[in-house]
Structure formats: structure tokens, C-alpha cells
Specification:
The chain has about 160 residues and is mainly beta. About 10% of the residues lie in helices and about 35% in strands. The strands form four sheets. A five-stranded antiparallel sheet has the order 10-11-9-12-13, with no helix packed on it. A three-stranded antiparallel sheet has the order 1-4-5, with helices on one face. The protein is elongated.
Length: about 160
């Protein structure tokens, strides 16, 4: 798909993909055992691990109560607050992702969805989007964290 034909995902979406049969004690909700969390084209598949069912000694897919987790809808709502969008491709940038910073005058930036760090615009480093040489830092739950090049270790071949 060429860049010009790519359609930007307008919003983050939560889609349950199973019955609402799990009681999540941490938030008090009854929710699904699986869901798709879509952060502007960045897809996260949520699924209760089989080991949880095994620990409770029940068949996979059986209704259960989970003590120490929130439901996927609560996780989605919490996480979408800290996911930003790449000003080049429009996909979600999650906490922990490495990012590039572009001058606001750069071509091909969608300033209507852009996140700014000072005067610069945040972009991702996915293949086909941002050049790896543009690494500036990492996106975190608290915002931009600059990359510390002084701690970079270069390994000899």
C-alpha cells in the first residue's frame, strides 16, 4: 500500500471478541476473556492466558474470577490516554516506543494529529516511516525521554 493511499484510523477502538464471562476483581467489572484494542492502527490482542484457567483448575473459556487484573475495557481506557500518534503515518506510538523528532516545517507531517516536544514534532520509527538515524528518544507514560547517546555501547564485529 502506498503512503498516499493509506487511510488514517480516526480513533482508538475497543472490541470484545468473546462473551462477557470474566469477573475482574480489581475494577469490579464483568468483561470478556479476549478483546482487540486498536490504538490508531496499532493493534493489541488481549487474551486471558491459558495458565490462569489451569491455576484455577477449570477449562479454558469457563467463567472465572480474576483477582489482580482490571478488565480489558479499563486497561484500554487507561492506556489510550498515553498513546500518541505519529505525525507521519498516523499510527499509535505507545510508551516504550522509540521516536524521531521532526522540525515542524518538515514535509509530510500531519500537524492536526501531531504531538509536540518543544518546537519539534513526534514521529515513529516503524519501517517505512521514520529513518532509524532520526532516533531522538523514547515515548513514556510521562512524555518524551531523550535518548542518552553517552550510554550507547558499540560492539566490535
Amino acid at each position: 500500500m502506498s503512503d498516499s493511499s493509506k487511510v488514517l484510523v480516526a480513533e482508538a477502538k475497543y472490541t470484545p471478541t468473546s462473551l462477557l464471562d470474566i469477573i475482574y476483581e480489581k475494577c469490579g467489572h464483568v468483561g470478556p476473556s479476549s478483546a482487540v484494542l486498536d490504538f490508531y492502527g496499532r493493534i493489541v490482542d488481549f487474551k486471558i492466558p491459558e495458565r490462569i484457567y489451569q491455576e484455577k483448575n477449570v477449562e479454558v473459556g469457563s467463567p472465572i474470577t480474576i483477582d489482580d487484573h482490571s478488565c480489558p475495557k479499563c486497561d484500554f481506557e487507561k492506556f489510550k490516554i498515553v498513546v500518541i500518534r505519529c505525525a507521519v503515518c498516523g499510527e499509535g506510538i505507545c510508551p516504550g516506543d522509540e521516536i524521531a523528532l521532526y522540525a515542524k516545517e518538515s514535509k509530510a507531517l500531519n500537524l492536526s494529529i501531531a504531538t509536540r516536544v518543544g518546537e519539534e514534532i513526534v514521529g515513529c520509527l516503524k519501517q517505512g516511516c521514520g529513518p532509524a538515524a532520526a532516533l531522538a528518544g523514547r515515548w513514556t507514560e510521562n512524555g518524551f525521554e531523550p535518548f542518552d547517546f553517552s550510554k550507547m555501547v558499540i560492539q566490535p564485529w
